[in-house]
Structure formats: structure tokens, C-alpha cells
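From the shared-data thread, chain only:
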Amino acid sequence: SEGKNAPRGRSERIQDYFTMIKPFAPPAITGLEIDCDWKGNPVVLPGEMERAQVLVGAVHWLQEIMKPNPSAQAAAEETLRLLSRFLTCGVHILAHPFRLFLIKNMRIPYEIIPQLVSLLKENNVAAELNFHNIDEPQPEFVQACVESGVKLVFGSDSHNLYEIGEFFPHIEFMKRCGYTLSDLPEIMARPEKEL
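Structure, as C-alpha cells:
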């Protein structure tokens, strides 16, 4: 039998999360970040997706990048293959789509941006702009999203309380891309209305 100090299981932690945030929702919006498996299926226990109002989809692993000498082209193709299925599962936001390339010091596959933006648009999925850790959004991706009508979301990827709502880098980035604060209401997703 498990001892008193045994680590809590995943399902218990998820239940703790929903119990903890219940007093704040509403007005707070509950959300989950969901990964996908090697086939693009969401990795989530039955019933969890329905409990959250906002689902953030993320690809944290690619088979290609686990190889000793990964190919950026093969990783880009794998990314599109996974997302072509994953973005149909009901996620509302795609998190940090190029993070894996940055982590592995691989070339950012700018050539997949049109296909990626098309998948986002077809599935009504917003694109997250994130500056956590080594992330830096690509202006080309942001421009393609805006031009195609794909909404954007600022993500602080808060791993510490002090990171919650830390959006100064996002606003400065948008200014560098040529957008003003008055442009933001038109190009940003409004989760309480659109997701």
C-alpha cells in the first residue's frame, strides 16, 4: 500500500486543480494545457477537456528531435502532421509552435507558416505569443496570422506567480511588428467571447 508521503497521482492533482480554482470561476476562466501523442491525439483523461473553458494545445515532443542528428525539415513535416489532427480535437489556442526548434537550436521552419496558419484558421484556433524561457515569437508568423484573421493570445506561461500577466515583452514585440495598442482589440482573441 502507498505510504503517507507517496507522490499524488495525476488524476488527483487535476482534481485538486479544479477544486482550488472553483471559488474563482467565474469570473476567472479555467483552462488546461494539453499535449498530443505521436499521432496527434490529445493526451488527456476522459472528462478533463469538458471541465475547462479554455484548452491550450501544445506539442512538447517530436520523434524527429529525439534523434541524434535531427532534420529541421523532417521535424517541420512531423509538426504539421501532428497539428493537422490535434487542432481538430477542440483546443482553442496553440501554444508556442516553434519552441522545440529553439530548444534544439534548429532552424525555424518558416516555410511551414502558411500551412500552419491555414490549419489554425480552418479549426478556429488562436495562436499564442509566448516569451517564457527561450521562446521568442516570430514576426513572420504573427504577420501571417493577422493577415489571415487568426486571432492571437498573449501567454505568460506562468511557472511562478510573479509571471502571471507579465505581458510587457508581448506589447513591445507587437510594437516592433508595427501594431499599436489600439490595434490589439481587433487582432487578439477574447476568450470569454470567442473560445
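The chain has a mean pLDDT of 86.
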